[in-house]
Amino acid sequence: MKQSVFLGTLAATTLFAGMALAQGTSTLDTVKARGELNCGVNTGLVGFAAPDASGNWQGFDVALCKAVAGAIFGDASKVVYIPTTSSDRFEQLTSGKIDFLIRNTTWTFSRDTDLNMDFVGVNYYDGQGFMVRKDLGVSSAKELNGATICIQTGTTTELNLADYFKANNMTYTAVPIETNAEGEQQYLAGACDAYTTDASGLAATRAAFADPENHIILPEIISKEPLGPAVRHGDSAWGDVIRWTMNALVAAEEFGITSANIEELATSSQNPEIQRLLGTSDNLGAMIGLDADWAKNAIKASGNYGEIFAATIGESTPIGLARGLNAQWTQGGLLYTPPFR
């Protein structure tokens, strides 16, 4: 759905969400009654969440929005994409303006406990890095003493940056930015020597440059950044819907279920876990308020986790990310989903 759609409906949906929260209506019931999902995404990060030339949102995080809509409605298009900044994303969630947040957001202690949010999993394991222009002549972050560094406010990167420079007895001057688009503009204009954010975000930002070959991402990764979707604290039933939809995409890759063979496997597979996942035996959907084929519809939205990764941010895309930690547990990565039973 185009970005412009949310502008005309945001006031009404915000009022609807606020009334529902006040009356104790479940988020799933609210979303079903509204007829569409309000998904909080990035303001624009190519590969993760950004509108294309036609205004249609695409990307790795967007695919989870589509999967959740598919699970609930059997129609992946029933999503309103609501751009959120690093500073307003949490208020958008806690106030009910969005149903869940999937915006390159790091799961941390304080966010999970102090900001009235519940993270329901990790969809991308990341870490903070640095990008510089090749002609700066820098090959290590430890050569950035005295540098000016563009950094988004309201993010975990601020504290990580301060800690890293302090630990290495270095100084820096921060150039605060609000959005990735502003960071890209400031960096390219020479307002800062380096840009720091999640390494995946740096790769996505560089891919959008006219001359990506003239910019390098330094080898140091200075933090753990487990990125994942979040729901409002205490909204556990809705959290189950998001968590198990994401798990379904991961499990589908593990079991070899793809967008090309899913219909065949739904009728022919003798694997009990595939049968449960695709709704041909038992009825796991009923346990979370969804139809029996909820997971099948979620997977059909954009494919399994591996297909989504390859199509949006993988090595064959301009972003060029390797699976690394985001490979299946059977392939040396950290992706591991609990059993569907």
From TrEMBL:
<dbReference type="Pfam" id="PF00497">
    <property type="entry name" value="SBP_bac_3"/>
</dbReference>
<dbReference type="InterPro" id="IPR051455">
    <property type="entry name" value="Bact_solute-bind_prot3"/>
</dbReference>
<feature type="domain" description="Solute-binding protein family 3/N-terminal">
    <location>
        <begin position="36"/>
        <end position="265"/>
    </location>
</feature>
<protein>
    <submittedName>
        <fullName>Amino acid ABC transporter substrate-binding protein</fullName>
    </submittedName>
</protein>
<keyword id="KW-0813">Transport</keyword>
<keyword id="KW-0732">Signal</keyword>
<dbReference type="GO" id="GO:0006865">
    <property type="term" value="P:amino acid transport"/>
</dbReference>
<dbReference type="InterPro" id="IPR001638">
    <property type="entry name" value="Solute-binding_3/MltF_N"/>
</dbReference>
<comment type="similarity">
    <text>Belongs to the bacterial solute-binding protein 3 family.</text>
</comment>
<feature type="signal peptide">
    <location>
        <begin position="1"/>
        <end position="22"/>
    </location>
</feature>
